[in-house]
């Protein structure tokens, strides 16, 4: 009995000590440093208990963490039944602990009441620079229900807390009422509104490699949760596009997200700051998106540009298939006139979408019909009113440039390009080409005269902004010709041309045989220019002119060798003023001032012909293709006739005949 009495005495002393430590002011003072040390260890920051009062029916604690956060809890407690009814107040600013990080101001106060395992807590205050109100209930130490109402949440504050780049700034309103049945069973609904959102272009370009402007947006998303599936729909309205989401679902257990969407692109011009290209038009795109921890899959379909485009993307790769796209609508997309009509089909493959994008594309154009009027204004080519053609093209990105190969086939013209380089940022394109013109008539407007025949050619070109450069090398008329077009300035330089070949090309009578060199400079915009043709050792072919000369002089011009011949002229609109000088071994031909109208092919060319001591003056006039040649005067013939009159005509007839000669 004495031992039992001693044991009870010891136990009562121990209980007294515990009670003294826990529930008296002096005992609390002894515990205080030990509690501070343990809390500092767990929190990872310096913790000071400014107030520490614990009674069996009352609690009053004030904790200061790293001089940046203060937590105050006070109220009634029932230790025997493990119940409490307390108030709390939390104030913090820019602090990071082992449990959480707070950026900016955090000022929440509220009440908590109930038991250790089951209790209710509410709160009201400011966090993330917004007003927050919540009510949460806990059952069996687990969160059972949460009602949250927060207005004006700063998006950048939340991203910072989550240690994410500040992709966007803006204000978010969130309302939620969620019941948690168990760890894998939730029920409730939530609404999220985004106000005054704006993307951060610097961060977007750094993180995703996409240049963008300050894109403003707003949106709303409504969702319901049942079990572990969150379902909802919503819309985002931005300065670039509008996005509508439906049948959206997120599995909280597997982290799989799926949604169907519709994109409305009201004006392509907003993409100019991002891609450096001005686009005109609009489009609607529908598709779906699926995302889990490893894979992102996007499908898109668009009825646009008169045809259909299908696209599929998986992670960093994408494939696009185009069908029946109308060429005229693509020209309109880039703000260009409709150079041709036709139907385009093809596919493109993209890789490295998260870095510097690379891609390959192959397309074919069918049922193509060129617009003679539009192409003529740009290049001065004279195409047939209706010219069917087909074309193929392939493109491959190489860094910041695009390499292009293309081929165009028609019954008039064939052109193939290789190693063509296009720079999207500057809209500059340059490359080389080879081809064949089956009908030289397409170049008639460039040279200012009707042409016929065919030729092979090759050259290079460059176009940037409003500047156009085209260079061609042609095998034509048995010679070599280089044609250079700089914007509207045309230069032609020919060597070793066959004069007969030239006559054949321009459809005029063959009147001269020689090898000639030619130079032509012409301003297509002003329609003015000049030309110079020179030939050596040429011969005149039999014609009406040679027959007339033989009749009057008994000299056969077809046997004469003209050591030098030079044709010069000036062009203004359809009018050509020209001069011709031909120096032969025994003769000289001179047209000091000739005139040709290219529109109606009318020629008027007075000429002087000197053969040994004989001379003739006449005129070539009429249709260039079949002109009339007239001998109008000759001092040699006049002198010869006068001598014959003196010898053989009676005196009374001499004077009338001499007066008649004065008319010539």
Could you explain the architecture of this structure?
The protein is of the alpha+beta class and 664 residues long. The chain has twelve helices and 36 strands. The chain has a 36-stranded antiparallel β-sheet. Helix 1 (2-23) packs across helix 2 and helix 11 (635-648) runs antiparallel to helix 12. It is rod-shaped, with a radius of gyration of 48 Å. The relative contact order is 0.03.
Brief characterization of the structure:
With 664 residues, this protein is α+β, with helices and mostly antiparallel strands.
Helices and strands in order:
Elements lengths: L1 H22 L1 H19 L3 E8 L3 E8 L3 E10 L4 E14 L4 E15 L3 E9 L2 E10 L2 E13 H7 L6 E15 L2 E15 L1 H8 L7 E12 L1 E10 L3 E10 L4 E10 L6 H4 L7 E9 L4 E9 L2 E8 L2 E10 H7 L6 E12 L6 E13 L1 H8 L7 E12 L2 E10 L2 E11 L4 E10 L6 H4 L7 E10 L2 E10 L2 E8 L2 E10 H8 L5 E12 L4 E13 L3 H10 L8 E11 L2 E10 L2 E11 L4 E10 L2 E10 L4 E6 L1 H14 L2 H11 L3
Antiparallel strand pairs: 1-2, 2-3, 3-4, 4-5, 5-6, 6-7, 7-8, 8-9, 9-10, 10-11, 11-12, 12-13, 13-14, 14-15, 15-16, 16-17, 17-18, 18-19, 19-20, 20-21, 21-22, 22-23, 23-24, 24-25, 25-26, 26-27, 27-28, 28-29, 29-30, 30-31, 31-32, 32-33, 33-34, 34-35, 35-36
Helix pairs in contact: 1-2, 11-12
